[in-house]
Amino acid sequence: MTPPDDVSANGQEAHFRALEQLYASAPVNQLFESRLEVLEPGRSRISFTASERFYHAAGATHGTLYFKMLDDAAFYAANSLVSDRFLLTTGFNLHFTKPLRDGKVIAEGRWISGKRRVFIAEAHLMDEEGDEIGRGTGTFMRSHIALSGLPGYHQPD
């Protein structure tokens, strides 16, 4: 699959770094020890640590952490292809494949399709042993929100 041509090669790295700054600046991300990397057009990775503070009553990580990291990884994979507008999640399907307790986790996102208004991206979670613990597919739509107007999104002049 060939990604859309919305982002020129010259501005691509600046756009990727600005998306990483945007992620880090979001207030919700102060609740999580996580780091976003936009790897290339249509691909992202979020590294984070799961711990007891995210457990549900039965002693494993609550699904909200799965959803948040899968949604974010898929979202940023898709938004890496759009340099002018913030995308919005319009739907997300989530599958839990293994319980998670503690440890380092990687969420990897990948753009699948969509070149204009609607984008589809998927993501999967891998634990420290390299086992998949969850996966999801999201649908993302261009919004009317300009990336350049968002606090945290800064490209070098």
Automatic annotation (TrEMBL):
It is an enzyme of class 3 (hydrolase). Gene3D superfamilies: Hotdog Thioesterase (3.10.129.10). One of its GO terms (molecular function) is hydrolase activity. The keyword Hydrolase applies. Keywords: Hydrolase. Its EC number is 3.1.2.-. The keyword Chloroplast does not apply. This is PaaI family thioesterase. It comes from Aurantiacibacter gilvus.
